[in-house]
């Protein structure tokens, strides 16, 4: 099994890299549906990252990394299909975003270490990635989270859902999020789950109240500051 169906992006994208692989490069469009998505990333210098490279010892922190153990033996396609049915992110973006959060130092993300040891770190990833491909997957994850968040909040703030419908929606998406956390190895106690659900419900009630005020009382654009006439409240 390979992950060619969701392989890393074309490494020829202009993404500057520091010598130690801890770069913080600008966000790059994931190009999920472009043909470049199906190509496996190769190192910048054109050298193969296959078996002809000298074997390097696996770093201690990589050997001790114990996330994703619950999907040990799972195929990439199955993980990816699960995510596609319930989220906007791919398996590759999920795994690499998690790794970038876990392998962050004071100087940046250890993208070289992540890319070179990807098959050791994540059971369903079978190929190494270039630092540029790691950065692109992380950037794609961040971009999708931002767009999904804006879409959700717009739906919540636009009176498309009743309070009860919004509660049901929040329950469904929270269950998916908790499952992904559990797959990563996070142990969620029942009390913690209930407390989190209560806090989320409270936040969403605040969102509804704030959106009512925004629709009926806001006088300027929150982005550009343009003065607007307040909307008239429904009878």
From TrEMBL:
Organism of origin: Halospeciosus flavus
Protein origin, superkingdom: Archaea
Protein name as annotated: DUF5806 family protein
Any Pfam family hit: DUF5806
Amino acid composition bias (Acidic residues), ranges on this chain: 11-32
Entry-linked InterPro entries: DUF5806
Ranges where the record places region Disordered: 1-66, 214-235
Biased composition (Basic and acidic residues): 214-229
